[in-house]
Specification:
4 helices, Trna Endonuclease, Chain: A, domain 1, alpha+beta, four-stranded antiparallel beta sheet, single chain, globular, about 35% strand
């Protein structure tokens, strides 16, 4: 298992925004940024990750398309995507050590103002593109039709994350899947 592709949640981890979590995230961001910069329908990519306001809003890049539209995107890595049959939706983050009035934060899946979420799926060497509208709509349909179980992850020694694992079938014809790497052109 390549550590640059998989973050391992554990109560023993120090803060998740440091160490291997960040290394995995930066690896996924680099792969997706390279793909965006080489995509024929894109004329410009602006990296927004260094802007504190954009990080706090869960936005990584601004993408300018050939038709003149500009869209914001959030980049994520998901070790299980393409293998498990599920798409992860982060509902809530619990911080165990902060002031109690800020102990619960709406998950990035629900709060990002970006137009697109771009997932890097390392085990299938692919990028998954999904509009946040479709991403959230799929979560709503799934939770309406099912009794969803929360997937709880002790992210690190100060945070726990509550997620939904939504079957990919709720995103039929809504996910763009792009093979990258050696097999992309075969």
């Amino acid at each position: 298992m390549e550590t640059s592709c998989r973050a391992l949640p554990s109560a023993n981890n120090k803060r998740s925004y440091n160490g291997h979590y960040m290394a995995v995230g930066r690896n996924a961001e680099a792969i997706i940024l390279e793909w965006l910069n080489n995509h024929p329908g894109i004329i410009g990519v602006e990296d927004l990750r260094q802007l504190r306001q954009m990080r706090e809003a869960d936005v990584d890049v601004s993408i300018t398309l050939f038709d003149g539209r500009v869209a914001l995107a959030e980049i994520k890595s998901d070790w299980h995507l393409g293998i498990s049959g599920n798409v992860l939706f982060e509902v809530l983050r619990i911080n165990h050590t902060c002031e109690t009035s800020r102990s619960c934060t709406l998950g990035w899946s629900a709060r990002s103002p970006a137009k697109w979420v771009l997932f890097y799926a390392p085990r299938v060497d692919s990028i998954y593109r999904l509009s946040f509208h479709d991403y959230r709509e799929g979560m709503q349909v799934y939770s309406t039709e099912n009794d969803p179980k929360t997937h709880v992850v002790r992210t690190d020694n100060i945070k726990t994350t509550l997620n939904l694992l939504i079957p990919e079938r709720y995103y039929i014809n809504k996910i763009g899947k792009y093979k990258i790497g050696k097999e992309a052109n075969t």
